[in-house]
Design a protein that fits this description.
The chain has about 120 residues and is mainly alpha-helical. It has one domain: Helix Hairpins (Orthogonal Bundle). About 75% of the residues lie in helices and about 10% in strands. It has a two-stranded antiparallel ribbon with strand order 1-2. A hairpin with a 2-residue loop joins strand 1 and strand 2. The two termini are about 20 Å apart. It comes from Mycena rosella (Pink bonnet). One of its GO terms (cellular component) is cytoplasm. It holds the Pfam family Prefoldin_2.
């Protein structure tokens, strides 16, 4: 039993669109993950530098076009909270990437199956 050409064409178009959308979303997700990872590394380096400072000193935090004096403990606490948020974001983006990769691979597999199982015309 074979499907009419128009139905087969619609199915192929839908599978191809799913594959393209998944690939685009996967690329965006990978780029976002890389950006968040860079931010997290910068925060880790900043935390390491602040931890290396002796004594209870005040630090300055950039707020818009000005700097506000902030106690060291408060600055460390804020940076650690930011780092945890970034780590959570990276984890969620990795899960999303795995899902999108699976979706893309499934669509590719469906296309491969359709083309390998179609009768060859002579």
């Amino acid at each position: 039993m074979s499907l009419p050409d128009e139905t087969l064409r619609k199915i192929l178009l839908q599978i191809q669109q799913t594959a393209v959308q998944s690939q685009r979303a996967l690329n965006i997700s990978v780029q976002q993950t890389a950006a968040k990872d860079r931010e997290r590394r910068i925060l880790q380096l900043t935390i390491d530098e602040i931890s290396g400072i002796e004594g209870d000193v005040n630090l300055y935090k950039g707020v818009g076009k000005m700097f506000m004096m902030v106690p060291r403990k408060e600055m460390e606490k804020g940076l650690k909270v930011q780092e945890k948020e970034l780590a959570d974001d990276i984890s969620n983006l990795n899960k999303k990437s795995k899902y999108l990769e699976k979706q893309f691979n499934d669509a590719q597999g469906q296309l491969r199956d359709i083309f390998h199982h179609t009768p060859k015309q002579q």
